[in-house]
Design a protein that fits this description.
With 394 residues, the protein is an alpha/beta fold. The chain is 35% helix and 10% strand. It has an eight-stranded parallel sheet with strand order 2-1-3-8-7-4-5-6, sandwiched between helices. α1 links the parallel β1 and β2. It is globular, with a radius of gyration of 19 Å. The model has no long low-confidence stretch (mean pLDDT 97).
Amino acid sequence: MSADVQVVWSPALLDYDFGDGHPMAPLRLDLTMRLADALGLLDGPGVRVVGAEPVSDAVLETVHDAAYVAAVRAASGPEGIADATRGLGTADDPVFAGMHEAAARVVGGSVDVALAVWRGEAEHGVNLTGGMHHAMPGGASGFCVYNDAAVAIRALLAAGAERVAYVDVDAHHGDGVQHVFWDDPRVLTVSVHESGHTLFPGSGHPRETGGPAAEGSAVNVALPARTGDAGWLRAIDAVLPPVLRVFKPQVVVSQHGCDAHVEDPITNLDVSIDAERRAAEWVHALAHEVADGRWVALGGGGYAVVDVVPRAWSHVIAEAVHRPVDPGLRLPEAWHEEVIARYGRRGPARMTDGADAQFRPWSAGYDPADDVDRAVRATRAAVFPLLGLDPEHD
């Protein structure tokens, strides 16, 4: 297996832009890649930065309805034809010129690195412009036009993969990916998110465990609002390792939306950069343990454009290229100058929030008075027996 890591990046990917004032600001990606570059993560032996081209309609239609792809094309033209029944032209997903090409390019990046990993041309692949996990076969949803994660997984299956695990630590439930593979036993979807009772899209409850032909293939941990580092990491640790180990995926595709952060403006979790970095470390280690290192890391949500996203995702890149960044490192002055030019202020000083990111492992015992523990126990009780696991001990 090649030791190369492919990182998707091209300024053309900034064209995925819903306009001024929209939370999904492309500047978050620009600042992330500038920071990763300033930290020296995009050069050196074994790292290749690769561009992305829009995929064909045929590739998109492995997941999306042909009528929906046609509607996105119509929304992308000079007339900007909205189609609210398909989620196009809403407050979440306003239409913009070139929407189809921009969204199809994001998909292209995820498909290309996934196939490079599967073919052994790269050990890991990273596409932080991807992770558009809400898009459904027939419609846009939650800032997501095309579901690059689902299309990339379909490409892996078509290339011969028999078991793919999708891991989602975004604050929002990975509903689109779950929907696409709901009844496909070849794909395990694991989502750790804020409960749908308090956050869009309102799904991802523990009882959602997969369709009749794939019971146990969907794993959902729905955490209460205001869950912090200790609870968030405890939940991931209590569920992710055992289900990946029993499923034995050949590839791990992960979505690293960083909107679980305490400073994110549209979610209600209280997680730190330090905990998000630790979660990326865990996913990376598990990919090496269970999937011979085949790992595809995607971006996703994250709307604290300056103070959170660049640091969180630079840590993901650092993990993927096997060059972890010291959390205490000061951010480069050249990066601060870019932030000042755009925002009139400096960004965060260091690559850490100063949190210790400690937690009590599930093996230390269950506390029935704790809201997080009850959420985790509900997930383990619902899905572990379907996977041949013991919810009390595994």
